[in-house]
Protein backbone atom coordinates (compact mmCIF):
# COMPACT_ATOMS: atom_id res chain seq x y z
CA UNK A 1 0.00 0.00 0.00
CA UNK A 2 1.52 3.33 -1.10
CA UNK A 3 1.37 6.24 1.30
CA UNK A 4 0.47 9.64 -0.15
CA UNK A 5 2.29 12.52 1.47
CA UNK A 6 0.43 15.70 2.29
CA UNK A 7 1.49 18.93 0.53
CA UNK A 8 3.67 21.23 2.61
CA UNK A 9 1.78 23.79 4.64
CA UNK A 10 2.10 27.50 3.81
CA UNK A 11 2.77 30.00 6.54
CA UNK A 12 -0.40 30.64 8.51
CA UNK A 13 -2.01 27.31 7.50
CA UNK A 14 -2.98 24.50 9.81
CA UNK A 15 -4.67 21.15 9.41
CA UNK A 16 -8.18 19.94 10.09
CA UNK A 17 -9.72 16.46 10.07
CA UNK A 18 -12.31 15.92 7.38
CA UNK A 19 -13.60 12.43 6.67
CA UNK A 20 -10.71 10.93 8.59
CA UNK A 21 -8.11 12.77 6.54
CA UNK A 22 -5.94 15.75 7.34
CA UNK A 23 -6.87 18.74 5.16
CA UNK A 24 -4.83 22.00 5.11
CA UNK A 25 -6.75 24.98 6.36
CA UNK A 26 -6.47 28.44 4.75
CA UNK A 27 -5.48 31.40 7.02
CA UNK A 28 -9.02 32.73 6.95
CA UNK A 29 -9.46 31.58 10.51
CA UNK A 30 -11.07 33.55 13.29
CA UNK A 31 -7.64 34.84 14.30
CA UNK A 32 -6.80 35.86 10.72
CA UNK A 33 -10.06 37.75 10.36
CA UNK A 34 -9.51 39.39 13.73
CA UNK A 35 -6.11 40.61 12.56
CA UNK A 36 -7.65 41.92 9.34
CA UNK A 37 -10.31 43.74 11.30
CA UNK A 38 -7.71 45.35 13.53
CA UNK A 39 -5.70 46.44 10.48
CA UNK A 40 -8.84 47.90 8.90
CA UNK A 41 -9.72 49.84 12.06
CA UNK A 42 -6.17 51.18 12.31
CA UNK A 43 -6.39 52.19 8.66
CA UNK A 44 -9.68 54.00 9.27
CA UNK A 45 -8.11 56.04 12.05
CA UNK A 46 -5.07 56.88 9.93
CA UNK A 47 -7.34 57.78 7.03
CA UNK A 48 -9.28 60.28 9.14
CA UNK A 49 -6.01 61.83 10.29
CA UNK A 50 -4.72 62.20 6.73
CA UNK A 51 -7.93 63.77 5.43
CA UNK A 52 -8.29 66.23 8.31
CA UNK A 53 -4.62 67.23 8.29
CA UNK A 54 -4.54 67.79 4.52
CA UNK A 55 -1.15 66.08 4.21
CA UNK A 56 -2.14 64.34 0.99
CA UNK A 57 -3.76 67.40 -0.64
CA UNK A 58 -0.68 68.14 -2.84
CA UNK A 59 -0.86 64.60 -4.24
CA UNK A 60 -4.58 64.96 -4.91
CA UNK A 61 -3.96 68.29 -6.64
CA UNK A 62 -1.25 66.71 -8.79
CA UNK A 63 -3.65 63.92 -9.81
CA UNK A 64 -6.40 66.41 -10.65
CA UNK A 65 -3.98 68.59 -12.65
CA UNK A 66 -2.74 65.60 -14.60
CA UNK A 67 -6.27 64.57 -15.46
CA UNK A 68 -7.37 68.12 -16.28
CA UNK A 69 -4.76 68.37 -19.05
CA UNK A 70 -6.43 65.44 -20.82
CA UNK A 71 -10.02 66.47 -20.07
CA UNK A 72 -10.27 69.51 -22.31
CA UNK A 73 -13.30 70.23 -24.43
CA UNK A 74 -14.20 72.44 -27.37
CA UNK A 75 -16.16 75.47 -26.12
CA UNK A 76 -19.20 76.62 -28.04
CA UNK A 77 -19.44 80.13 -29.44
CA UNK A 78 -21.87 81.39 -26.78
CA UNK A 79 -19.06 83.13 -24.87
CA UNK A 80 -16.89 85.83 -26.45
CA UNK A 81 -14.03 87.77 -24.88
CA UNK A 82 -13.46 91.41 -25.76
CA UNK A 83 -9.80 91.86 -24.94
CA UNK A 84 -8.07 94.99 -23.72
CA UNK A 85 -5.00 93.90 -25.65
CA UNK A 86 -1.77 95.54 -26.90
CA UNK A 87 -3.49 96.52 -30.16
CA UNK A 88 -6.19 98.43 -28.25
CA UNK A 89 -3.59 100.13 -26.06
CA UNK A 90 -1.67 101.24 -29.15
CA UNK A 91 -4.75 102.79 -30.78
CA UNK A 92 -6.69 104.13 -27.78
CA UNK A 93 -3.82 104.97 -25.47
CA UNK A 94 -2.57 104.11 -22.03
CA UNK A 95 -4.95 102.33 -19.66
CA UNK A 96 -7.13 103.19 -17.73
CA UNK A 97 -9.16 104.88 -20.43
CA UNK A 98 -11.83 107.53 -19.87
CA UNK A 99 -15.10 105.82 -18.98
CA UNK A 100 -16.68 107.51 -21.95
CA UNK A 101 -14.74 104.95 -24.02
CA UNK A 102 -16.44 102.10 -22.14
CA UNK A 103 -19.76 103.88 -22.72
CA UNK A 104 -19.14 103.79 -26.48
CA UNK A 105 -18.26 100.08 -26.33
CA UNK A 106 -21.42 99.26 -24.36
CA UNK A 107 -23.55 101.16 -26.87
CA UNK A 108 -21.87 99.19 -29.66
CA UNK A 109 -22.68 95.91 -27.90
CA UNK A 110 -26.26 97.07 -27.38
CA UNK A 111 -26.60 97.80 -31.09
CA UNK A 112 -25.07 94.43 -32.02
CA UNK A 113 -27.50 92.51 -29.77
CA UNK A 114 -25.15 91.03 -27.18
CA UNK A 115 -27.02 88.70 -24.84
CA UNK A 116 -25.29 90.06 -21.74
CA UNK A 117 -22.12 91.96 -20.87
CA UNK A 118 -19.80 91.12 -17.98
CA UNK A 119 -17.18 93.82 -17.54
CA UNK A 120 -14.15 92.72 -15.52
CA UNK A 121 -13.15 96.38 -15.27
CA UNK A 122 -12.99 98.30 -11.99
CA UNK A 123 -15.20 101.39 -11.65
CA UNK A 124 -15.05 101.78 -7.86
CA UNK A 125 -13.63 105.32 -7.75
CA UNK A 126 -15.13 108.46 -9.32
CA UNK A 127 -13.64 109.73 -12.58
CA UNK A 128 -11.80 113.03 -12.66
CA UNK A 129 -14.48 114.15 -15.09
CA UNK A 130 -17.96 113.40 -13.61
CA UNK A 131 -19.37 113.53 -17.13
CA UNK A 132 -17.57 110.28 -17.98
CA UNK A 133 -19.31 108.46 -15.14
CA UNK A 134 -22.67 109.80 -16.30
CA UNK A 135 -22.00 108.65 -19.86
CA UNK A 136 -21.11 105.09 -18.87
CA UNK A 137 -24.05 104.95 -16.42
CA UNK A 138 -26.41 106.01 -19.21
CA UNK A 139 -24.95 103.44 -21.62
CA UNK A 140 -25.32 100.70 -18.99
CA UNK A 141 -28.93 101.75 -18.43
CA UNK A 142 -29.68 101.66 -22.17
CA UNK A 143 -28.22 98.17 -22.46
CA UNK A 144 -29.99 96.77 -19.39
CA UNK A 145 -27.86 93.61 -19.23
CA UNK A 146 -24.49 94.75 -17.89
CA UNK A 147 -22.81 93.12 -14.87
CA UNK A 148 -19.96 94.89 -13.06
CA UNK A 149 -17.47 93.49 -10.53
CA UNK A 150 -17.35 93.56 -6.73
CA UNK A 151 -14.21 92.68 -4.80
CA UNK A 152 -12.71 93.01 -1.32
CA UNK A 153 -9.92 95.45 -0.56
CA UNK A 154 -8.22 96.68 2.59
CA UNK A 155 -8.89 100.28 3.61
CA UNK A 156 -5.19 100.59 4.39
CA UNK A 157 -2.23 98.23 4.51
CA UNK A 158 -3.25 95.55 7.00
CA UNK A 159 -6.50 97.39 7.64
CA UNK A 160 -10.14 96.37 7.72
CA UNK A 161 -11.64 94.88 4.59
CA UNK A 162 -14.37 96.63 2.66
CA UNK A 163 -16.30 95.82 -0.49
CA UNK A 164 -15.24 97.78 -3.53
CA UNK A 165 -18.47 98.54 -5.44
CA UNK A 166 -18.92 100.66 -8.57
CA UNK A 167 -19.54 104.34 -7.86
CA UNK A 168 -23.13 105.14 -7.00
CA UNK A 169 -24.29 106.57 -10.35
CA UNK A 170 -22.98 103.52 -12.18
CA UNK A 171 -24.06 100.92 -9.61
CA UNK A 172 -27.66 102.15 -9.74
CA UNK A 173 -27.90 101.29 -13.44
CA UNK A 174 -26.30 97.86 -13.66
CA UNK A 175 -28.39 94.74 -14.13
CA UNK A 176 -26.38 92.96 -11.43
CA UNK A 177 -23.11 92.96 -9.52
CA UNK A 178 -20.83 89.93 -9.35
CA UNK A 179 -17.82 89.13 -7.20
CA UNK A 180 -14.53 88.41 -8.96
CA UNK A 181 -12.80 86.60 -6.11
CA UNK A 182 -10.24 84.07 -7.36
CA UNK A 183 -9.91 80.73 -5.55
CA UNK A 184 -6.17 80.13 -5.26
CA UNK A 185 -4.91 76.96 -3.61
CA UNK A 186 -1.84 76.86 -1.36
CA UNK A 187 0.41 76.31 -4.38
CA UNK A 188 -1.07 79.45 -6.03
CA UNK A 189 -2.81 77.42 -8.74
CA UNK A 190 -6.44 78.15 -9.57
CA UNK A 191 -8.40 74.92 -9.91
CA UNK A 192 -11.86 76.14 -9.03
CA UNK A 193 -14.18 79.01 -8.23
CA UNK A 194 -16.47 80.19 -5.44
CA UNK A 195 -19.93 80.82 -6.85
CA UNK A 196 -20.83 83.02 -3.87
CA UNK A 197 -18.73 85.43 -1.75
CA UNK A 198 -19.17 88.61 0.25
CA UNK A 199 -18.23 90.56 3.34
CA UNK A 200 -19.74 88.91 6.41
CA UNK A 201 -21.90 86.61 4.27
CA UNK A 202 -21.45 85.12 0.78
CA UNK A 203 -24.38 86.91 -0.86
CA UNK A 204 -22.72 88.14 -4.09
CA UNK A 205 -22.85 85.68 -6.99
CA UNK A 206 -19.71 85.31 -9.06
CA UNK A 207 -19.49 87.55 -12.11
CA UNK A 208 -20.19 84.60 -14.42
CA UNK A 209 -23.13 83.40 -12.32
CA UNK A 210 -24.64 86.89 -12.11
CA UNK A 211 -24.39 87.18 -15.88
CA UNK A 212 -26.02 83.82 -16.47
CA UNK A 213 -28.82 84.63 -14.03
CA UNK A 214 -29.94 87.73 -15.94
CA UNK A 215 -33.64 87.44 -16.65
CA UNK A 216 -34.12 84.58 -14.16
CA UNK A 217 -36.00 86.20 -11.31
CA UNK A 218 -36.10 83.00 -9.28
CA UNK A 219 -32.39 82.27 -9.78
CA UNK A 220 -31.54 83.06 -6.16
CA UNK A 221 -33.77 80.17 -5.05
CA UNK A 222 -31.98 77.69 -7.30
CA UNK A 223 -29.72 75.21 -5.54
CA UNK A 224 -26.17 75.85 -6.68
CA UNK A 225 -23.62 73.14 -7.34
CA UNK A 226 -20.48 73.05 -5.26
CA UNK A 227 -19.23 72.35 -1.77
CA UNK A 228 -21.38 74.23 0.73
CA UNK A 229 -19.84 75.64 3.91
CA UNK A 230 -22.39 76.26 6.70
CA UNK A 231 -19.70 77.96 8.84
CA UNK A 232 -20.43 81.34 7.24
CA UNK A 233 -23.66 81.58 9.24
CA UNK A 234 -21.68 82.56 12.34
CA UNK A 235 -18.99 84.58 10.58
CA UNK A 236 -17.74 88.01 11.53
CA UNK A 237 -19.25 90.86 9.47
CA UNK A 238 -15.68 92.01 8.78
CA UNK A 239 -14.49 88.79 7.14
CA UNK A 240 -14.68 87.98 3.44
CA UNK A 241 -16.72 84.79 3.23
CA UNK A 242 -16.89 82.29 0.38
CA UNK A 243 -19.27 79.46 -0.42
CA UNK A 244 -20.34 76.96 -3.08
CA UNK A 245 -16.85 75.96 -4.18
CA UNK A 246 -16.58 74.12 -7.48
CA UNK A 247 -13.67 72.71 -9.45
CA UNK A 248 -13.34 73.71 -13.07
CA UNK A 249 -12.99 71.62 -16.17
CA UNK A 250 -10.89 74.03 -18.20
CA UNK A 251 -11.61 74.11 -21.91
CA UNK A 252 -7.92 74.53 -22.68
CA UNK A 253 -4.99 76.92 -22.40
CA UNK A 254 -5.12 80.68 -22.72
CA UNK A 255 -6.71 81.69 -26.02
CA UNK A 256 -9.16 78.78 -26.23
CA UNK A 257 -12.24 81.02 -26.17
CA UNK A 258 -13.13 83.35 -29.03
CA UNK A 259 -11.41 86.68 -28.55
CA UNK A 260 -11.99 90.06 -30.20
CA UNK A 261 -9.87 93.16 -29.79
CA UNK A 262 -11.57 95.92 -27.78
CA UNK A 263 -10.62 98.56 -30.33
CA UNK A 264 -12.00 96.51 -33.24
CA UNK A 265 -15.40 96.17 -31.56
CA UNK A 266 -15.34 99.83 -30.55
CA UNK A 267 -14.71 100.95 -34.14
CA UNK A 268 -17.26 98.55 -35.66
CA UNK A 269 -14.69 96.38 -37.43
CA UNK A 270 -16.29 93.15 -36.25
CA UNK A 271 -19.18 91.37 -38.00
CA UNK A 272 -22.43 91.65 -36.02
CA UNK A 273 -22.96 87.87 -36.04
CA UNK A 274 -19.91 87.41 -33.79
CA UNK A 275 -21.63 89.34 -30.98
CA UNK A 276 -25.36 88.84 -31.48
CA UNK A 277 -26.90 86.66 -28.73
CA UNK A 278 -23.47 86.06 -27.18
CA UNK A 279 -22.34 86.34 -23.59
CA UNK A 280 -19.64 89.01 -23.73
CA UNK A 281 -16.82 89.30 -21.19
CA UNK A 282 -14.68 92.44 -21.27
CA UNK A 283 -11.27 92.33 -19.60
CA UNK A 284 -7.55 92.83 -19.86
CA UNK A 285 -5.24 90.42 -21.66
CA UNK A 286 -2.31 92.78 -22.21
CA UNK A 287 0.72 92.07 -20.05
CA UNK A 288 0.87 94.11 -16.87
CA UNK A 289 -2.81 95.14 -16.79
CA UNK A 290 -4.18 92.33 -14.65
CA UNK A 291 -3.34 89.20 -12.75
CA UNK A 292 -2.11 86.20 -14.69
CA UNK A 293 -3.60 83.13 -13.03
CA UNK A 294 -1.77 79.82 -12.84
CA UNK A 295 -4.18 77.03 -13.77
CA UNK A 296 -3.61 73.26 -14.10
CA UNK A 297 -3.36 73.79 -17.85
CA UNK A 298 -1.48 77.06 -18.40
CA UNK A 299 -1.25 80.66 -17.20
CA UNK A 300 -4.22 82.76 -18.29
CA UNK A 301 -5.66 86.24 -17.68
CA UNK A 302 -8.62 86.70 -15.38
CA UNK A 303 -11.09 87.28 -18.20
CA UNK A 304 -10.26 83.86 -19.73
CA UNK A 305 -10.78 82.31 -16.30
CA UNK A 306 -14.21 83.99 -16.10
CA UNK A 307 -15.02 82.59 -19.56
CA UNK A 308 -14.27 79.07 -18.29
CA UNK A 309 -16.53 79.58 -15.27
CA UNK A 310 -19.34 80.96 -17.45
CA UNK A 311 -19.13 78.17 -20.01
CA UNK A 312 -19.02 75.50 -17.30
CA UNK A 313 -22.08 77.02 -15.61
CA UNK A 314 -23.99 77.22 -18.86
CA UNK A 315 -23.23 73.62 -19.84
CA UNK A 316 -23.52 72.10 -16.37
CA UNK A 317 -19.89 70.98 -16.26
CA UNK A 318 -18.85 72.23 -12.83
CA UNK A 319 -17.19 69.63 -10.61
CA UNK A 320 -18.37 69.34 -7.00
CA UNK A 321 -15.81 68.08 -4.45
CA UNK A 322 -17.18 65.52 -2.03
CA UNK A 323 -17.56 66.73 1.54
CA UNK A 324 -15.64 65.10 4.40
CA UNK A 325 -18.28 62.51 5.29
CA UNK A 326 -18.65 61.27 1.71
CA UNK A 327 -14.88 61.29 1.16
CA UNK A 328 -14.35 59.36 4.35
CA UNK A 329 -17.21 56.90 3.80
CA UNK A 330 -16.07 55.87 0.33
CA UNK A 331 -12.46 55.55 1.43
CA UNK A 332 -13.40 53.43 4.46
CA UNK A 333 -15.25 51.00 2.20
CA UNK A 334 -12.34 50.74 -0.23
CA UNK A 335 -9.84 50.14 2.58
CA UNK A 336 -11.50 46.79 3.20
CA UNK A 337 -10.92 45.58 -0.37
CA UNK A 338 -7.31 44.34 -0.04
CA UNK A 339 -8.10 42.58 3.23
CA UNK A 340 -11.11 40.84 1.67
CA UNK A 341 -9.22 39.84 -1.49
CA UNK A 342 -6.24 38.43 0.38
CA UNK A 343 -5.87 34.69 -0.13
CA UNK A 344 -8.13 34.40 -3.18
CA UNK A 345 -6.81 32.05 -5.90
CA UNK A 346 -4.36 33.83 -8.17
CA UNK A 347 -3.87 36.73 -5.78
CA UNK A 348 -2.38 35.31 -2.60
CA UNK A 349 0.20 37.43 -0.90
CA UNK A 350 1.90 38.87 -3.98
CA UNK A 351 2.01 42.45 -5.25
CA UNK A 352 -0.94 41.83 -7.56
CA UNK A 353 -3.20 42.42 -4.56
CA UNK A 354 -1.75 45.90 -4.05
CA UNK A 355 -1.99 46.74 -7.75
CA UNK A 356 -5.64 45.64 -7.95
CA UNK A 357 -6.58 47.60 -4.83
CA UNK A 358 -4.88 50.80 -5.99
CA UNK A 359 -6.35 50.45 -9.48
CA UNK A 360 -9.82 50.09 -7.97
CA UNK A 361 -9.35 53.30 -5.94
CA UNK A 362 -8.14 55.28 -8.96
CA UNK A 363 -10.96 53.88 -11.11
CA UNK A 364 -13.54 54.92 -8.52
CA UNK A 365 -12.16 58.45 -8.40
CA UNK A 366 -11.96 58.75 -12.18
CA UNK A 367 -15.45 57.30 -12.71
CA UNK A 368 -17.05 59.76 -10.28
CA UNK A 369 -15.26 62.63 -11.97
CA UNK A 370 -16.00 61.66 -15.57
CA UNK A 371 -19.51 60.34 -15.16
CA UNK A 372 -20.97 62.44 -12.35
CA UNK A 373 -18.72 65.52 -12.11
CA UNK A 374 -17.87 64.65 -8.51
CA UNK A 375 -14.32 64.84 -7.22
CA UNK A 376 -13.22 62.25 -4.68
CA UNK A 377 -9.54 62.89 -3.84
CA UNK A 378 -7.98 59.39 -3.65
CA UNK A 379 -4.47 60.07 -2.30
CA UNK A 380 -5.24 59.48 1.39
CA UNK A 381 -6.95 56.18 0.61
CA UNK A 382 -4.06 55.08 -1.62
CA UNK A 383 -1.52 55.93 1.08
CA UNK A 384 -3.38 53.93 3.73
CA UNK A 385 -3.83 50.93 1.41
CA UNK A 386 -0.07 50.83 0.80
CA UNK A 387 0.61 50.99 4.55
CA UNK A 388 -2.09 48.40 5.18
CA UNK A 389 -0.51 46.05 2.64
CA UNK A 390 2.99 46.47 4.09
CA UNK A 391 1.70 45.86 7.63
CA UNK A 392 -0.10 42.69 6.51
CA UNK A 393 3.03 41.39 4.78
CA UNK A 394 5.11 41.99 7.89
CA UNK A 395 2.54 40.22 10.06
CA UNK A 396 2.47 37.19 7.75
CA UNK A 397 6.27 36.97 7.68
CA UNK A 398 6.40 37.19 11.46
CA UNK A 399 3.74 34.51 11.75
CA UNK A 400 5.65 32.28 9.34
CA UNK A 401 8.89 32.77 11.26
CA UNK A 402 7.19 31.86 14.54
CA UNK A 403 5.74 28.65 13.07
CA UNK A 404 9.12 27.61 11.71
From TrEMBL:
The keyword Transmembrane helix applies. Residues 56-340 form the CHASE2 domain. SMART domains: CHASE2. The keyword Transcription regulation does not apply. The chain crosses the membrane at residues 39-59, 324-344, 351-369, 375-395. Signal peptide: none annotated. Keywords: Membrane, Transmembrane, Transmembrane helix. Residues 1-22 are annotated as: Disordered. This is CHASE2 domain-containing protein. The lineage of its organism: Bacteria, Pseudomonadati, Pseudomonadota, Gammaproteobacteria, Lysobacterales.
Amino acid sequence: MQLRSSPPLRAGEGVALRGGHEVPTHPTTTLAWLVRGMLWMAGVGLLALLIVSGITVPWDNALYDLHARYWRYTPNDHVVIIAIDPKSLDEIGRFPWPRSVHAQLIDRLTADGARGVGMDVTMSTPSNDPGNDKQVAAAIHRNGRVVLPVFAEAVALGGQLQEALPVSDIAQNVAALGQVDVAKDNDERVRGAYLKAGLGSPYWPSLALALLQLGHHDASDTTLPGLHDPAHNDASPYLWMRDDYVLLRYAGPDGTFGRLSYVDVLNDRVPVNLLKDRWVLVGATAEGLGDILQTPDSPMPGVEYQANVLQSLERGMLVTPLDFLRQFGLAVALLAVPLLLYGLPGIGRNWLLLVISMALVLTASLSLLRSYYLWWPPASCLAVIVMEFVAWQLLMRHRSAVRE
